[in-house]
Write a structure and sequence with these properties.
Elements (H helix, E strand, L loop, with lengths): L1 H11 L3 E12 L4 E14 L23 E4 L1 E2 L2 E3 L5 E3 L2 E3 L6 E4 H6 L3 H9 L28 H11 L3 H5 L12 H10 L5 E2 L7
Parallel strand pairs: 3-8
Antiparallel strand pairs: 1-2, 4-9, 5-6, 7-8
The structure holds zinc ion.
Length: 204
């Protein structure tokens, strides 16, 4: 837990960069966004993140806006890479927002796996180009590093601040209590195409 928390914090530190971001036009005089007009920006993000990774014993400890990483016994799902080779999945993530799932054996062998899956929930995609096998999001097994690029950081920060509309209403809250995290996890775990094996008694 501590390791995962530290790596996520370290990787998100130092801001990020993204160009071609379409967002509301900013009015400097009024110091507010014009919600009726769009503008294209190059954004340098500079956020401080507090990361808190917690182990839970009961599903009812989950809150609507939590990110979930579930550890299961095994994953039957396989994928084909861009070179046509088949691979077993060590982890699977249900798109942006999650939940993310990792298999226990792979997680023990590769402590960066959970961070890889978590960053899928923040909008990053897998990398398969062999000249980028020093990157955390490279997922073909022969990784030689865990680099996150500034552009990837920019992508994650853009995802995190998507609901900037809420900020313009002076409610600096990102909580999304209505998101049914437990239900999303249940649906993802029970989706047969994912081939998860897990102790069902632990996920009630
Ligand atoms: Zn991946």
């Amino acid at each position: 837990m501590t390791f995962t928390q530290q790596v996520i914090s370290n990787k998100l530190r130092g801001g990020g960069y993204k160009s071609g971001v379409i967002f509301f036009e900013y009015n400097h005089a009024k110091k507010s966004f014009n919600l009726r007009k769009n503008h294209t920006y190059s954004i340098r993000y500079n956020f401080n993140f507090m990361v808190n990774v917690q182990q839970i014993n009961m599903l009812n400890q989950l809150k609507g806006n939590d990110f979930v990483l579930a550890v299961v016994d095994s994953i039957g799902h396989q994928f084909t890479d861009q070179y046509g080779r088949r691979h077993s999945s060590a982890g699977l993530t249900n798109g942006t927002g999650g939940p993310a799932v990792v298999s226990y054996d792979h997680w023990k062998k590769d402590r960066y796996l959970s961070v890889h899956e978590f960053f899928h929930t923040l909008g990053l995609r897998d990398i398969e180009n062999s000249d980028k096998n020093n990157r955390l999001m490279y997922h073909l097994g022969d990784n030689i590093g865990q680099v996150i690029s500034e552009l990837e950081k920019g992508d994650m920060m853009q995802f995190i601040m998507k609901n900037i509309i809420d900020m313009t209403k002076n409610s600096y809250s990102y909580s999304n209590a209505n998101r049914n995290t437990v239900n999303l996890l249940r649906t993802f775990l029970n989706d047969k195409t994912n081939g998860f094996k897990y102790n069902k008694a632990k996920f009630r």
